[in-house]
Specification:
alpha/beta; Transcription Regulator spoIIAA; globular; binds iron/sulfur cluster; metal-binding; iron-sulfur cluster binding; S-adenosyl-L-methionine
Length: 277
Amino acid sequence: MLEVTVGCTHNSCTFCTYYKGHPFHPAPLEQVRADLAEIARFRPGTDHIWAAGGDPFSMSTRRLLELAALVHEYLPGATISTYARVDSMRNKTVDDLRALHDAGYTDIMIGIESGDDEVLAHVNKGYAAADVVEQCGKLDEAGLPYNCIYLGGIAGAGRAEETAARSAEVFNQIRPRFMYLTTVTIFPDSELGAEVARGDFEPMSELERFREFRALVAALENPIVVDTRLVTNSIGFVAELPADREECLAALDKAIAGFSEDDERRLSRRRAMMRTI
Ligand code: SF4
């Protein structure tokens, strides 16, 4: 992991406290150079770099190409993965994205979170569903592979199936190859946590989060690997869609049918104990 930026350019999603107090800035190139020299000295042969930070892909194409050249000065042939926001692609053309792919950026992780405009606006994600289709469509056109994160639960109580259906409509127009299917834990010190405390937002139950997963897995049409094995989830599986769909839906149906009030209490208690790092 190589720090290339600090903080997040947006830093305003209402559920996120991750970079509070850390304004966005690119790491100085001398620092990146020193870190690369250290990697090359202690781990020669390193062939893959995670370019760390909130959304390093928001940097200009020129800066990202410079960064790739620096990586290859110390680690010839190493490939590079990094985080991007959906709007990180706004300042890049399809040709820019092709050039970045050719320069060694082999995959991008995008926290899309949802394809539901109501949800995206409510959590102040900073873009709309149409932007997801347009900007990810540029990655598709450029042939630059990308992965994504779906954040279940942020639609709030009573909206599991509806928000999954709206999101699937968006995901069915783009071609991410992998999805972390996760679910929100609302921290008291986040803006969303304050909404909950005021009684303005009712969180989704644990059972409803299972139903949201089910609805999404049922509706995704393009080939994608879905992975729920994350600490915030109460059910863990990897499914290669569409091949594993029926097996996966059967497992989710079984989990939903057997879900008791005790399960709800136990999983809610577990979630309440989760803390950010
Ligand atoms: S874009 Fe990501 S890192 Fe930035 S505020 Fe939103 S969730 Fe947090």
